[in-house]
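Exam review. A common question shows you a sequence with its structure tokens and asks you to describe the fold in words. Practice with the pair below. Do the first one on your own.
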Amino acid sequence: MSMRLRAFNLFFKTIHKPNLTPFSHPFASTALAHSTPPSFSDATPSTPLSHPSTLHVLQTLHRLHHLPVLALSFLNHLHRTGFPHTLSTYAAITKILAFWNLPRKLDSLFHDLITLSKHHRLPFHPLQLFETLFQDMDHHNLYLLRAFDGFVKTCVGLNMFDEAIDFLFQTRRRGIVPDVLTCNFLFNRLVEHGEVDKALAIYEQLKRFGFRPNCYTYTIVIKALCKKGDLMQPVCVFEEMERVGITPNSYCYAAYIEGLCNNHRSDLGYEVLQAFRKGNAPLEVYAYVAVVRGFCNEMKLDEARGVFDDMERQGVVPDVFVYSALIHGYCKGHNLLKALDLHDEMISRGLKSNCVIVSYILRCLGKIGMPLEVVDQFKELKESGMFLDGVVYNIVFDALCKLGKVEDAIVMSEDMKSKGVALDVKHYTTLINGYCLQGDLVNGFRVFKEMSDKGFKPDIVTYNVLATGLSRNGHACEALKLLDYMESQGVKPNTTTHKLIIEGLCSAGKVLEARAHFNSLEDKSVEIYSAMVNGYCEANLVKKSYEIFLKLSNQGNLANDASCFKLLTKLCLTGDTEKAVMLLERMLLSNVKPSIKMFSKVLSALCQAGDMESALSLFNSFVLRGFTPDVIMYTIMINGYCRMNCLQVAYDLLQDMKRRGIKPDVITYTVLLDGNLKANLRRCVSPRGKGKRTSSVSSTLRDMEQMEINPDVVCYTVLIDGHMKTNDFQEAISLFDKMIDSGLEPNTVTYTALVSGLCNKGHVEKAVILLNEMSSKGMTPDVHIISALKRGIIKARRVKFHN
């Protein structure tokens, strides 16, 4: 007969033999030791199988002492049949489980006790159980300590931190020092839940009671101090560890490095890493991961790459987490090419990609406006067999919705569910947004209803999507009704909600309704004013937008950066450069640093208007305020002076940018070449300057060569067009051939320049050859080429007729 079968037989015999003699055992409770055998009259005659008495249960538990799992099953069975367990029965099973060191079973038992106590279905408080154990057992009994530690861990696991702490100090008053592993579990969970001060206070108090931390304890303390922002105190912790003879391990060092990086001090984190390394401290790859991730979070991608290269020089092999952190950084910076190169390098080293890494790449593709590539990449990944989680699917849903293929996203959601990946609120919200983008509000609300029917509670993002959809489609009343409905569902509209409604109504031409909603808001934050600035810009009411901007500015506030940029762009487009300059000055007065892109916008507008005096004044003020112009700003200024035929000033600016260490690019040189070629053309047609040309084109090309800057298609096209217009056909054809030899493909503009030039001089046959070549490459001749060809044919006929 098997052990389990004998045990069950024993179980039934015990229930049906109530006159068994009580026994004495060092593990038996006092209740059992002092009990007397019950009589048969205890049972109710009308009940076929009455509950056994507490004494019988205690006796059975004693017999099952060597079968702890069965003992617990026996106890649970009685509970299910309605047996009223007492303090003594729970004490008995606790002793058995603690004796056999079954922490998971103890945790399950204590979890049930706490749950029953919360629902007032336990005839005693859980802490009374330990009072009983204190009475029955020696305070230094190993099994008792296991039970105490188990109860603390259960409370902590249920996030009942105050109860765990109270119990910890109650046991301490009885002379019991808690186990270091239990304390570490408590400290760590407190820190993870943001209770840093509480964790540190308990740590210090327990140390006064004789608690001895281990290396992991110190690691948690370092982590807690860093979370608190106290970045120097961990140094004292390392000193204390040295005093007590505990050697920090790699996790301990990494905790400090990560703490510095999480506080946006990745530079210091890297210095500390290097110092530890010089001291031969044990550093694992995770320390480098923390620094790389820190620099990426601060968008210091060059520094992150530097750490990556450094770890390789030190012989530390990058793992998938290092690659993941750096790829994530490049993707956040929209540097897709570097992200893809790094991903390829990772694969070539035998490391497997995963759904987290590919989600970074797919999201980057979506952000830079390549939704079709997102879908294509997803299909390839799916065919490769890689597990794709809900985050990846949601990115693809968003891409499909932007492509107007919401139905495809719906079909894909079914495929997703078949793969065992559940839909959540985010997925439904993306699908709703897809329908709203198409103006299909009926289906948008259908998905919203389906989501609610399936038990998903819409969040603020979902409601904001609906509010945007309604307002952008001109449904002002419905959008405002949605606000009331949100509140009735316990979701309060936030600033973003009102912002989206205002902007949406303006874009739908409902400016009066947007203004009315704006006026109805009592608390108008900067974001709300910014929304009105954006809204008026959307409705092309630039003057009103500027008025709102000024009103906010006069109150001592400023619209957000995005709104300022939007208004600035509109002012530049409408040629109102005076207000655009004023906007920049208001930003500077408010100690808000305008971006280089904003300065460049205004510079470009001034140069386009031919107001080089104001452009130079703005450029100089930019430099005087401590800003450094970039290659784009210099190129804008150079282009402006070239347009005004002030080539010497343009070349002076070129030399100035070189002195500042700013390398000109191919666009800068293209602008200069275009300016010189147009100057040559003016000389050719001028009676006084006929036949005179400058050597600036040649010197500029030599300068490009020295700077190792190769002409691109646009640059070659400018050169070809310039030489054709000055009747230098041979040089133009030579440049065309050189362009093709360098691997560049001429575009429609290049062919137009050549064909037009040839036709103007009557070389129609050569022009037709080029036109055929162009068509063979799939390029359609535009109206300019056709017009030039017609003029060339007519001109050739006239020449032939006169001959």
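Now try the second one, then compare your answer with the model answer below.
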Amino acid sequence: MQRKMLVAAITATLALPLFAAPALAQDQEGAAANAEQLEAVTVTGSLIKRSQVETASPVITITNEEITKKGFGSVSDVLRALPQANGGVQGAQTSASFTQGAETLSLFGLDPGFTLYLIDGRPMADYPLLYNGSGNFVDISSIPMAMVERIDILPGNQSAIYGSDAIAGVVNIVLKQKMDGYALNLRVGGYSEGGGDSQRLQFTGGNSWDRFNLIYSLELRNQEPIYRFQRSWMDSTLDNPSGRGQGSFNYLVRDLLGEVADDFVDPGAWCDRVSSAYGGTVRRFEDNLGRGYACGSPLTSGYSSIMNDRRSANGYVKGVFDINDSTQAYGSLMYNVNTVEYFAGASYSWWGSGAGAGPFYDPTVGSIISLQHVFDSSQTGIFGLNNSFDRNKTYVGQLGLRGTFGDSNWDYDVYYHRSDNVVRSKQLRPLGALVDRYFLGDPVAGATDPFFNEYPVYNVNWDRFYSVITPDQYRSFSDYIRGESHTYTQKVNATVTNLSLFELPAGPVGFAALVEAGNQLWDDSPDPRMVAGEVWGASATQGYGKRDRYAIAAEMNAPLTSMLTATGSARYDQYKASGRSDEKFTYKLGLEFRPADSLLLRGTYATAFRAPDMAGLYQGESGFFAPGQTDYYRCREEFGDDVDFDTCRYNNQQIVGVQSGNLDLKNVNAKSATIGVVWAPTSDLAFKADLYEIKIDDQVQARSLDEILQLEADCRRGSTVGGSPVDINSPNCVAVLGLVDRNLNPTGPSVVAIDQVRTYPINVSKEKVRGITANMQYRLQTDSIGDFIFGADYNTLLKHEYITYPGDPTIDELTFLSYPRDPKWRASASVTWNVGGFSTTVYGQRRGKTLAFNEVDTIGPWTTYNASVSYTVDDLTLSLISNNVTNKRPPKDRSNTTYPYYDSFNYDAYGRSIFAEINYRFGGSGG
């Protein structure tokens, strides 16, 4: 991409007007007289208003009209349909994830936290809960549609204007600024396969007086859930494409001393006592792997939600007051209350003896055993009782003063902005001590197993274990677990702009500068019992932190010739917290070359950063389970340094991990470049395409547990596997040994076993993406059959590489064998036909092939279609909308034998939806 040459060229052209201005200022009138004067407007990605729609930076814009015609009902729907949003993310379909009640997106397959979200150019507060339990991000599910004028997406590094987080790009949700009259909109509908019924009511209005303009809205929304059991192709584990589906292990007893590891104890007639569970489908069955028999139902996994139950109310008001001809005062407030309810499923609704009592001896069985009991979450059991509830309250407000300094060309804008987000969560969960006692009773005093004289003895209450737990019984050993989490970001900003700082022969030089100061807070306060480990089978993240930030920035726009314009911006950010300071200087350079009115050649080079996120700095100790770990110390201690770790019996251990924040984290740093072309041969036809590259260094990863355990073994044994000496008293060893807690009791079978391993985030990873994004728009106007509007968008990744730790091989993410497996390319296209008051649109999305579960075959592509038809008479518009018209299911992967048998990060299982919408406009000066 010749980035060094591009940087040099742009730098030289930016420097030119600073030296040439005095000599050239007088030779300006001829060129200016012939230039068509268009009104300058605010452009996403710039502090300077521009008269050109297309600039050096590629911007993807989706208007309110397009949103409606393409069938989208929410901001989340719009953004996740973007071809540029090709990365798989967690959300409502990813059961038991940390943020099942929130939605986000991944631009170009990059981390969701690398996208900056704005409302009218002002930042949104992070969602208080952590994405995947480790990182801050923004929830886009609760942004109201009522006031959206358009959505701008600006790919690539944008920190030189907006500061931290703008690595993958910026999403700016631009709201309506003025309205005359009122509008009432009602949208109702649901899904043809059941579930998901929704109703949305919007009221918007605006009034103007002599010196005061007011605009306001109210949006109410109700969304019913969709459960997996409502989709026939994944309502049961018998849908397993291998044909070897079996029931879930709802009632399971493992014999830990069996001839085969973890032999099942045959329940026999006990299964008859629980056959009524899950609608009478529980039966005794034999495990496919030959481990024995258990009681279970194939319908168990179907009881989990894939669309959240959601009820929301949103209000918005904005007022602008003309103090005089050159000064305006303005203010706005958006307030949202959003209640989300969802059920994670059997993976979050069960009890096992391992978490509390551990392995134990039962005299009835006569062996050391462990138990598993999956609660009946269907209508015959505790359906809905242990759902998760998240109540989210957010507001975004600002107060400002803007105007012009006297008769000069200098404009100013001074404002205070605050975005605040609070989540209160609630769920009825079993308490460890109570649920253990319910099934096991108390351990037999003074008794241990007859084999090792180590394990406790319990007399299992088999009548309770083999029973269908009722709601009252579930409540008897459970309690509501409540948490509250809070974030905010606030700042004071002062910006000055001058659209004509001085004149060049080709036109005026624009300039802008800003200074801002603010702070942000993150407070994640779960129920103390979650942190203390008193809630069975559950852990929580926690933490608190606050930091101040300051920034200055400047931008210049210089028309070097009638064909060539150079742009440049630079910004300095400083973050202060906990006695530490982080600084970052970023810049962006751009060139616009217009050899003809119809052609634009453009390029940019930029740097960006992400300040250490609040969770990375301030996360308190939070537990997790880490399977598949190797205990290198025990392997080497028992079998010597030449041990084969692959066959060592300690090579597949599940250990308890504890993660906390790291105040020594540094910024994540990035560079990006774009080069592109825009061609509009007529006013009805336009093409644009841009090549982009984003390179990221110092990405944050938790320190590897495997690396910690290897180093711990070296320190304890005094040498590496290869024989190099290691000093146990060295600072590195002292630090590592403090991360690993072991049971050093010299007696019993659990000698020197790992109790837990601590880890923390570090700046270590690198990532690079390169791709092409393209767009086409064409309008065909006819005299007799109306107008046709064609549009197409395309994004493809040419490269996506990742290096997790220094020295690791480079991972090709386009072929990497792990979930989610993102498509290399995505495309969309639409055609709209307008004739008289009639309008219809067909919109299609296509995702490219992805790697199959067996890591050999491919699946897809996957294509879905939306369609809408509307008719307008006077002030009334009636619409009928269908999304996924053909009821296309996710692509079938016959090698995927893991429920629900499709990639829920990249595909949705909702199916066809049908909505009716009515919009009525009334009042106003013309009404």
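Model answer, second protein: Residues 328 and 515 are 20 Å apart (CA to CA). Residues 3-24 form the longest helix (22 residues). Full marks require stating both points clearly.
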